[in-house]
Design goal:
The protein is an alpha/beta fold. Helices cover about 50% and strands about 20% of the residues. The protein is built from 6 helices and 5 strands. Strands 2-1-3-4-5 form a 5-stranded parallel beta sheet, sandwiched between helices.
């Protein structure tokens, strides 16, 4: 990785097996991975650690992804602009519209993405963000 700093990714996912697979794959790809099991712990970790990117599930206990995204966008300047990729099984148009309206960078259906393709998408968004920040 050209950057000397490991990029931090927060995975907010209540499915333990999927969260573990994502964590292992992303760590193999030299990312620092933070984890949260619901929107409540997701907000806590995100505001404390300021990850470079958040992978966010929608349907979770305690606080869903839409509520977390809404709260995150109101936290501070970092929260308003952090890259959020929604990774979900939902294809509901209203849910997609709500997430997009809250500034989700991209909405990805879990069944349509391989781990390799997801890593490529993450790298693409992080490099675009780095390019925009340096302009």
């Amino acid at each position: 990785m050209p950057d000397t700093e490991k990029k931090k990714i927060l995975v907010v996912e209540d499915d333990t097996a999927l969260r573990r697979v994502l964590k292992e794959k992303l760590e193999d790809e030299h990312f620092e991975v933070l984890e949260a099991i619901d929107g409540i712990s997701g907000i806590e970790v995100a505001t404390r650690e300021h990850p470079h990117l958040i992978l966010l599930d929608i349907f979770m206990p305690n606080m869903d992804g839409i509520s977390m995204l809404s709260k995150l966008r109101g936290v501070d300047a970092w929260g308003k602009h952090v890259i959020v990729l929604v990774l979900t099984n939902s294809t509901d148009a209203e849910t997609i519209a709500r997430a997009t309206g809250l500034g989700a960078t991209e909405f990805l259906i879990k069944s349509e993405w391989s781990l390799e393709a997801l890593v490529g998408k993450i790298r693409e968004h992080l490099s675009e963000n780095a390019a925009n920040a340096s302009e």
